[in-house]
Amino acid sequence: MGPGKTRRTFMKDCSTTAAALTTLAAVAPAAGAGPGTSYICVTCNSQFTESARPPENCPICDDERQYVPPEGQKWTTLEALRSSHRNVIKEEEPGLFSITPEPKAGIGQRAFLIRTPEGNVLWDCVAPLDDPTIARIKELGGVAEIAISHPHYYTTMVDWSRAFGGAPIHIHELERKWVMRPDPAVRFRSGQSLELRGGLKLVTTGGHFDGYQVLHWPGGAEGRGALMAGDQPQICMDPKQVSFMYSYPNYIPLNAPAIRRVMECLDPLAFDRVYGAFFIRGRGIVPDRGKEVVRHSADRYIKAISG
Ligand SMILES: [Zn+2]
Ligand SMILES: [Zn+2]
What we know:
Layout: H1 3-19, E1 40-41, H2 59-62, E2 75-76, H3 78-84, E3 86-93, E4 96-102, E5 111-114, E6 121-123, H4 131-139, E7 145-147, H5 157-163, E8 169-172, E9 186-189, E10 193-195, E11 201-204, E12 213-217, E13 226-230, E14 234-235, E15 242-243, E16 245-247, E17 252-253, H6 256-266, E18 273-276, E19 285-286, H7 290-305
Parallel strand pairs: 6-7, 7-8, 8-9, 13-18
Antiparallel strand pairs: 1-2, 3-4, 4-5, 5-6, 10-11, 11-12, 12-13, 14-15, 16-17, 18-19
The structure holds zinc ion (2 copies).
């Protein structure tokens, strides 16, 4: 049985687990919990459909790409996060703002707001969402569309959509099974790419997740183009290097065909700069020569895993 088959079998098991979420666990309610609470997994910050008590488990963390910490599954709520976290909104370059929770929330990623004359796009998502965040983003023009690279960052996307007039959330249909809080705002897309407003484009690359998508921002990097990469390619401690993994926390690599496919999908895109999900690694940016960095890193990776 090859790794692909193992993965498919595993995904099927996860779907079964998701379907069994109505089985309720005997877990002490988190702060702010009550009837009809949308619980949030502390480890990955995935938010679940409203329930009277916390779900039994988190399929995102049970997946071999993530983990349940040794102390066990824990739950929180958006209300609790509002008192423990705040979001730092910072201009990264003209037209681009990063949104970073402090202290670290869930996996520790940041989100981005890209401003365009036709409306703003929220790229990726973070769980904390409070009134100061909403007010600041409204000052910047609000959110017209939301796009999220992969299930690790779905978090409280439904609350973000509702805070900004029901903005549509663009997710690849291959990730349907990982949406823990289904909502009419979620627009599953198919195929290789989707044009968003302002010349932005979602491109499916696969790899870290089957429906993994990056966002191409042609106006980024003073018009040289920016790749909003999320987790893949992952910017390394040395920002002249990127990497590609099936699981980052569990160090599960991708195979050569998967890397080649990612590169085939990225090759047609013009970009000089890469923005990653994590500020800590290489400060989360390949400032220039990004396409060369990605190409060189992919070649080296394939060489390293080829016997
Ligand atoms: Zn989780
Ligand atoms: Zn991820």
